[in-house]
Amino acid sequence: MFTLFRPELAAYAQDTLAEQRRLHDGGWQPGEVHALQMERAAETIRYVRANSAFYADRLSGVTVPAAGPISPQDFAAVPFTTKDDLRADLFDVMSQPIDRAWVYYETTGTTGRATPCPRDERDSIVNNTALTLAYEKIFAQHGERHVVAVMGPTELHSTGDTFGDVLRNLGHTVVKMWPHSPVVGFPRALALLEQLGVTAIVCTPGMAISLAKAARAAGIDLHGRLGVRLILTLGELTSPAMLENLGALWSAAVYNCMYASQEASIMAACHADGRLHTVPLNNHIEVIDPDTGRAVEAVGGVREGELVVTHLYRGAKPLVRYRTGDLVRLFAEPGSVSEVMQPIGRSRDALRLAGRRVTAFDLEQTLFTHIRGVIDYFLLIDEADGQDLVTVNLEPVDEEAGAAIDRVAIRRAVADTFHVACEVVLGSMDAITSTGAMVSWKAARIHDRRGSGAEPERAAALAIAAGRGAR
Questions:
Q1: Which helix (H) or strand (E) holds 329?
Q2: What are the pLDDT tens digits along the chain (471 aa)?
Q3: Which helix (H) or strand (E) holds 378?
C-alpha cells in the first residue's frame, strides 16, 4: 500500500513486475539478459562507490564507465566482498543511512559478529515480486485459498515480513508465530494450526521436525486432526530425499522454497516444478573455486563451487561480488535464461571421509534415499582402528517405523558411497538438531569427534539447544 503514497515507487513496482512476468513467460533471450546484467552491475558499482564508505575505498581502483555497461573483463577484476568484510565494516557497507530504510534486520550473530541487513522499498519490491510470481502456481496446485502459518527464526529476521507481503499479494491469510517463543510455545502453535484450519506452513526443516515431535508427544495425529497440505521450507540445507521424508511425515507436499540469506536476500526461488531457479534480473551469479577464487567452468552443463552474487538493484545495502561461503551446483536449463540451483552446503561444512571431500547435501541425500518414517537424525563421526566410522542416529516416528528401518541397506549405502564403516542406532534426538537455521547444518546434525580443536559453532548450537530444552 505504500506505493499509493509514493508515485515513483509505484512506477518502479510496475516496471519490476512487467520485467519479472516477462521472465516467467520465457520472453527474455540470453544475450539480452547478459547485456542487462552488465548494465545494471555497472549501475550498482557506481551507486555503492558514491554512497558506501566501504565500497568507496574497496572499489576506488575499479574501471567502470561513467555511464553504460561494464565489460565482462573489467567486472571479473572487481574485488570480492566477504563475510569478514561485512563483520568488520558493518554500517559502512550500507549505501543508505538507517533512516532511509523501511525496516532493519540483522544476522543472528551465533557464528560471528551480527551484521546489519536493512531493506528499503526497492529491496522489497524486487525480491518480493520474484517470490510472488514463483509461488503463485505452487499454492494454486494445493488449493484456491490458504491459511498460512509463517514461523520466522527471530524478530530481527526478514521471514515474517517477506512472506506476509508475498502471501498478501497472492490473496492468502497469514498467521505469524514462533513456537520457540515463550509467549507462543509449541502447544499454542499446534492449537492454532488446528483451530484456524492452517493449510500451509512456512518454516525451517528443523521446525517442521520439532512441530511433528510436539504433535506426537501431545497425541495429535498429523494426518487426521491437522489439515496441512503444503510446507515451504527455508533457512537450512535440505536434500530432496529429506523433503520426501518430511512430506511422508506430514502427508503434505514439501518444497525447499528459496535459497537466500539475510545479507544477500533472494538468490533462487522455487517454482511449481519443485526446483530452485535463479533470478537473473535481480542478481548476477558467479561460481568460483572456494580455494583459488577462480571462475569455475561448466562440465556437462553443470557448475559446482562457491556462489558469488552481485545485486542488480540499488537498495539500502547492495553487495558487489559477494562471496556467500555456500557451495552450489548450477544446472543449465535448456530454453531458459535462469539456471537451476542445488545448494550443497557451506564451504566450511564440507567433511573429509576416508580422505575424500564430502558435502552436507550428498551425505544427507545418501542417507534419506534409504530412510522413511524417521522424525529426526544426527551423525557421529569417529575414528576406529585407523578407519573413519559414521554412526547414524535415527529417531523413528513410532515402533512400527523403527522396525521397518533397513539398517543393512543404510550401512551398505554409506560404506559404498563414502568408503567408511557405518553403524545405525535408533533413539531420541536432543534439541541441538533444531538449531540448523540459527547456527549451521553441520553444528546441528554432526559431531565430528576425530579432532581435538575448539568447536565454536557446536558450542553455540549447544547453548541455543540448552535454552530451548529448558522451556
A1: strand 322-332
A2: 788 899 999 999 999 999 999 999 999 999 999 999 999 999 999 999 999 999 999 999 999 999 999 999 999 999 999 999 999 999 999 999 999 999 999 988 776 789 999 999 999 999 999 999 999 999 999 999 999 999 977 666 899 999 999 999 999 999 999 998 888 999 999 999 999 999 999 999 999 999 999 999 999 998 878 999 999 999 888 999 999 999 999 999 999 999 999 999 999 999 999 999 999 999 999 999 999 999 999 999 999 999 999 999 999 999 999 999 999 999 999 889 999 999 999 888 888 999 999 988 899 999 999 888 999 999 999 998 889 999 999 999 999 999 999 999 999 999 999 999 999 999 998 878 877 656 677 788 888 888 766 677 777 777 777 776 544
A3: strand 374-384
CA angle 102, 265, 245 (to 5 degrees): 125
The secondary structure element, H or E, covering residue 242 is helix 240-250
The set of residues, in sequence order, having a beta carbon less than 8 Å from that of 453 and lying 6+ positions away, is: none
Question: Cβ contacts of residue 9 below 8 Å, gap of 6+?
Answer: 2, 3, 121, 122, 125
Helix (H, G, I), strand (E, B) or coil at 447: strand
Contacts of 323 by beta carbon, 8 Å cutoff, 6+ apart: 80, 81, 82, 83, 288, 306, 308
> Is the pTM of the predicted complex or chain greater than 0.90?
yes
For residue 231, which of 213, 215, 250 has the smallest C-alpha distance? 250
d(C-alpha 140, C-alpha 270), whole Å: 14
- Does the domain at 348-469 match CATH 3.30.2290.10? Answer given as no
Amino acid letter for position 309: V
Contact (CB, 8 A) for 104 and 242: no
Q: What is d(CA 47, CA 55) in angstroms, rounded to the nearest whole number?
A: 9
- The set of cell numbers assigned to 94 is 550500507
* Alpha carbon distance 223, 225 (integer Å): 6
Closest residue by Cα to residue 282 from 309, 312, 322? 312
- CATH 3.40.50.12780 residue spans of the chain: 1-276
Domain at 1-276, CATH class: alpha beta
What are the b/e assignments for 60-84, b being 16+ CB within 10 Å?
eebebeeeebbeeebbeebeebebe
Residue 194: other Cβ atoms inside 10 A = 14
Q: Which three cell numbers stand for residue 42?
A: 555497472
Amino acid at 7: P
Return the half-sphere exposure (C-beta side, CA atoms, 13 A cut-off) of residue 354: 11
Q: Do 134 and 234 contact (CB within 8 A), yes or no? A: no
Residue range(s) of every CATH 3.30.300.30 domain in the chain: 348-469
